[in-house]
Amino acid sequence: MQAPERILLSRANPGRTPLAPIIAEARLRYPGSRIDWLTPEEESVELRPGEKVFFHSGAFPSWDNLTDATRKELRRRRHDLFILAVADDLGVRAFGARLLPLRARIPAIELLNHKLQARRFNQKEWLANTAAAESFWRVWVAVRQKADEAAATAWLRALPAVRRVMEAAPHESLEGRKLRVVIFTHSMGVGGVQKQIFELLRGMDRSRFDPTLVLLVKDSGFFEPEVRALGIPIVHVYPIQPEDQFFTLIARDLARVLRRIRPDVVHTYMPLPNMLGAMAAPLSGARRNLLSVRALRVEEVTTWSGPQYQTFDTLASRAVDHIVCNSNAVADYYTKWAGVPRGRIDVVYNGIAPGPYASLTEKDREDKRAELGMQPGEVLALQVGRLSMEKQVHVFVDALRLARSKAPNLRGVVAGGGPEMAGLTARAGDLIAAGAIRFLGERRDVRQLLAAADIVVLTSMVEGMPNVLIEAAHAGKPSIATACGGAQEVVRHGVTGYVTPVGAVEEIAERLAELAQQPELRKRMGEAARARGQKIFNPERMVAETVRLYE
């Protein structure tokens, strides 16, 4: 088979399918080819000479989500092969993406599944495969999912009995060796959960513990290099997450991974990994299984809600040794959600090392402010986080606009990427034009940005225990945060900052203007925040309180 000269690569679900491993696989398979790709927003993959990134509107790729100029350019470049990365061979829910190579007149199509296995089609074969996937197979998957949910429920109900049998079996002696610990979560992309996992792994006493990080999928791997630098192995269950989550099959594959590691302890983070870990850990011979609950859930912002998922969480929580929550707000919520007695839940606050924030100098601060275009006398309000609906960044934009009528020296900076970027920049068009706000995208210099800031703002509608507020405290900055869960356990209203109702644009604006106009108040609140953060939210405390549950 002749290698294609030019390839166009796309993903059926960009929000769930990472770009980097797909391009790496394509370059491995076709080393002499030039690869263009379609994406909803720019991603950090290095372009080679002659390659190009095309952008589509909306969350999913389709011919209708391309501009006229992009359509003309795609046809002009005459691609030889279209690679569509999907999370299963059927590629259901990808109808628009499936039609795209036909309309772009690309002669060959390759379907790349979640195991990076490829199937090649010509246009007629592709059309027939698409028709099958969008009719009979769509129905089959729906039926299969219902059967899988029933099987997963039965598996979870049987776990207490399974654990009793496994506990009665002979175990490898712990004498003279380290405790093997598996930390299991979805991925190590940008996020508060991932930050806490890294802090836990970094602080774990390696003379007592032998940790392995198991991830459900590969993704951008934001924290993976830092984990590897600690000498801790990382194992991926899949290169890409399966689109149709057949829980029993994923739990089976996870159990196979765990059996190779032979852990003594399995500690899981996030809803799906918590369920899968509860199912798989007993089959690996693990002595202890812990699950961590890190967030409040709201119907509008999570798919892990509703009666079926509540049943999953209830059954999983009954089958583990410990439930760890990162705030009292999350613990109280989970007690009601999963029917867990409050006494079974351990609250362990997030921990972040204060030293790196305290070590930044006034020169570091001024250098970063200069980079951001700040002028003498201007006050910088910073919001950090993923630009998704639950973060409600539009509230910050609207509050900043109001606050500037009283404090015209106030400027805003937003650090973070996500699906709301286009809508937010459009909403803030007048502020951007006036140089009053900047959207920086995803950043690795948050520590320096916090040093440059005067005020930190969090406008979320729901949070478990927001790391950015702890980081702001370590940086000695006052915060304005909404009463969105664990945020109220970090910010002491009137002492280290202010807590406002969720969505209270006018009140947030008042607090912004107040802090912008009173530098001594900012200083006093920042110092109080730093003292409290160092005492309560340090990693040594978090690690010690966590690992005591392993032994």
On the 0-100 scale, what is the average pLDDT?
90
Largest sheet: 7 strands, parallel
Indicate the proportion of strand residues.
15-25%
Q: How many distinct beta strands?
A: 19
Percentage of helical residues?
40-55%
Instruction: Report the radius of gyration as a whole number of Å.
Output: 25 Å
Set out the fold topology.
Blueprint: E1 6-11, H1 20-29, E2 34-39, E3 53-55, H2 68-77, E4 81-85, H3 95-103, E5 108-112, E6 118-122, H4 123-133, H5 136-168, E7 179-185, H6 192-203, E8 209-217, H7 224-229, E9 234-238, H8 247-261, E10 265-269, H9 271-284, E11 288-293, H10 307-318, E12 322-325, H11 328-338, E13 345-347, H12 355-358, H13 362-371, E14 379-384, H14 393-403, E15 410-415, H15 421-427, H16 429-433, E16 437-441, H17 446-452, E17 455-458, H18 467-474, E18 479-482, H19 487-490, E19 497-500, H20 505-517, H21 519-536, H22 539-547
Parallel strand pairs: 1-2, 1-4, 2-3, 4-5, 7-8, 7-10, 8-9, 10-11, 11-12, 12-13, 14-15, 14-17, 15-16, 17-18, 18-19
Antiparallel strand pairs: 5-6
Helix pairs in contact: 3-4, 5-9, 5-10, 8-9, 9-10, 13-17, 14-20, 18-21
